Hints:
Elements: H1 6-28, H2 38-42, H3 45-53, H4 61-68, E1 71-75, E2 78-81, H5 84-91, E3 98-99, H6 117-127, H7 133-139, H8 144-160, E4 167-170, H9 171-188, H10 203-220, H11 222-233, H12 237-243, H13 245-266, H14 278-282, H15 296-326, H16 329-342, H17 352-355, H18 361-374, E5 383-384, E6 390-392, E7 395-397, E8 402-404, H19 407-411, H20 432-441, H21 455-472, E9 473-476, H22 483-486, E10 488-491, E11 493-496, E12 501-506
Parallel strand pairs: 2-8
Antiparallel strand pairs: 1-2, 3-5, 4-12, 5-8, 6-7, 9-12, 10-11
Helix pairs in contact: 3-10, 8-9, 8-21, 9-15, 10-11, 10-13, 12-13, 13-15, 15-18, 15-21, 16-21
Amino acid sequence: xxxxxxxxxxxxxxxxxxxxxxxxxxxxxxxxxxxxxxxxxxxxxxxxxxxxxxxxxxxxxxxxxxxxxxxxxxxxxxxxxxxxxxxxxxxxxxxxxxxxxxxxxxxxxxxxxxxxxxxxxxxxxxxxxxxxxxxxxxxxxxxxxxxxxxxxxxxxxxxxxxxxxxxxxxxxxxxxxxxxxxxxxxxxxxxxxxxxxxxxxxxxxxxxxxxxxxxxxxxxxxxxxxxxxxxxxxxxxxxxxxxxxxxxxxxxxxxxxxxxxxxxxxxxxxxxxxxxxxxxxxxxxxxxxxxxxxxxxxxxxxxxxxxxxxxxxxxxxxxxxxxxxxxxxxxxxxxxxxxxxxxxxxxxxxxxxxxxxxxxxxxxxxxxxxxxxxxxxxxxxxxxxxxxxxxxxxxxxxxxxxxxxxxxxxxxxxxxxxxxxxxxxxxxxxxxxxxxxxxxxxxxxxxxxxxxxxxxxxxxxxxxxxxxxxxxxxxxxxxxxxxxxxxxxxxxxxxxxxxxxxxxxxxxx
Length: 509
């Protein structure tokens, strides 16, 4: 009796299945009539190539929409919508579009991972008061000003070095040390001590920054990524620290969140009345509102989320502020004149409320323009079309389909922002109607029910740091940082090619 040719048979079956799937996706899939690259309709590897091996599919989207129209099929089961009205329809308050979430060992259970609007609303009821403008202003004397003062004091010796001629600093790391210590102190009443590291060379911050490439890969290969993580988690700590720094960096954040949650659960009367943590609120639910305390796992995941969201994005905007202002002498001169007029004593630290007032309109414009170009999360925020389907941008889209729209396309729309890639604070010094339209299109914090909860914290940190940094110091980035360094890759957040560095000196009065 002859042996059954199992291997050739299996190969033939696999090839037939692959061919049939390609035919189905091209001609019979619910999205078959939507325009887009044929390769994108066939396989997710089209997106993966641009996102993992190139600078990001998001940078190709304007060209794709110019070629194919307002709706483009960018994956076998996903379309991208270009126009602002489509974006607003998907992300508006009360949206029926549920979030699509890829399992992540550090963030699953957090606010970011909740897929339905009902779940999201319940969790936000806990967190929204913690991130309100009133809450941020209340804790500012104990948090922002202290961290900012430490940051500025650390810069001073570098600025006075070489007999006052100054020295070169890595501001990429400096800003991340500031934002990491600030968000962690606010959420945990405990920080990394990153601002105390000589030259801001914090190993923990370095490890954490490396994790964004890892997070992106996990969205395309979640099963493989999950298996690898379980393997890495089983290794001794010194092996993880030395050979798997991105994973280890996230694990350190997770451990800090876990320790804080467990301490508060064991010591419910230990709350610091000046700065209650987000966990204090979660552990004291309002029964009349039907609130219930999230699980320990979910609270730890929310802690990791706040660190991730509050560190890199704000630091990235500060880097753009520094780069663009120091590359535009007229902008810098106008900003410094406003700061000198509004902050007479160079050593004074003024409040964020003051900086958001009428005396500092140009400062606000400089920050807002950096936010526009900084993008927050530039790429695809994936949602699922409700089961009954929707009509969007004039086309009916069947239920269950993944749909997305990107902040990148809105923030760089040439109709609303002429010469959109130019840093121009003057575009925000305009008449009220124009300002309102530009404000409506600038979506760096997204929009609707799932917009960035940390917007007030971010604005306070950006205004405070920008104002006092340029009031006290003169920084030159020319010759130390290049256009290539500042160009970015989409790794869920914008990750620059290089690092922004500059020669820092004390600013003359």
